[in-house]
Amino acid sequence: MGFVRSEERQRAEIEELRRVLLACAAVHRRKDDDGIGAPPRAAPRGDDDDEDDEAGGGGGRAVCVTSGVSFLGRALVSRLLLRGYSVRILVDNEEDMEKLREMETSGEMGSARSNFSAAVAKLGDVQSLCEAFEGCAGIFHTSAFADPAGISGYTKAMAQIEVKVSESVMAACTRTPSVRKCVLTSSLLACVWRDTARNHLTNVISHDCWSDEALCASKKLWYALGKLKAEKVAWKIAEEKGLKLATICPALITGPQFINRNPTATIAYLKGAKEMYSDGVLATVDVTTLADAHVRVFEAMIKTASGRYICFDRVIDGEDDAARLAGEMGMPVDKIRGGGEGESSREPRPRLELSNRKLSCLMSRSLRPCYDESRTV
Questions:
Q1: What does the pLDDT look like over 269-285, one tens digit per residue?
Q2: Annotated catalytic residue within 99, 122, 181, 227
Q3: Are 278 and 338 in contact (CB under 8 A)?
Q4: 42, 70, 183, 290: least CB-packed within 10 angstroms?
């Protein structure tokens, strides 16, 4: 998670991060092979190495996770370590540093701590990112941004930063010889905000669907707009430069104490919750399910997997579901399902249907019979 701050303060925090990471033996123990100061450049890999990756070998098992200390990032790092990857976490601010210390002291990395390292980089600085990515075969770009001064924690300015960072990360991927693949975390909100009055639109929301930028802007849905535009710029660069890219569009991310551990994204995601609930597209996904989806998509990219993937495991459909979600968040259920004064008279809207068939087929290892992934992004 990144914050807007003065350049002088940012430089001071970066320097402090460097000192702490260099002093942390557990983080720095892989200095010779995977060091934070000067990561090794991987030799160009052939098809045999790609096959080795999928089979669980060591050909290209070094990966980098941006915002690897976030709610999703931690779950993803844990999953990658369990799968035998060497994981580099990218950090860029004081909050990340504190979370990194917590991960080190809590034993969260378990017996795989020797495969865990860190790198300091500014998310908007392409050269800094290239240095952090060097030696890694894959990048998981999971970062999101928050403005402490914003009411929802995510403002219009944050949406612009989201796009800029996505552009920088993708540029760094294309300029770093070792990087072969990238998985970017987008959002289901990049798919569901469409003008339902347009009769030619399908009622099924799948990976083919894109939200309407003008609609998001008019409703001040900055989180949706930021994710939408960030994903689009990523696809543009990947297609121009020939980089393997997959994007995952998750529903509201839940899990143990998610409202406390992921407050900004949760609150920002739920702006417009009543309308999503009414349309039938308010959904959630457990953070461990989402982390597993990231890894499975990454590994399947070697052969057939590509494009966009919608990820959810529960649709909030009915008052009981709404009440359960509200209880988990400690908020009135009316904030989710509506029912306040004037809302009961709202004109009924056609119900939509969410489809995650593409991801479900991949996760069930029956990709070819279920879906022809070469059809579309």
A1: 999 999 999 999 999 99
A2: 227
A3: yes
A4: 42
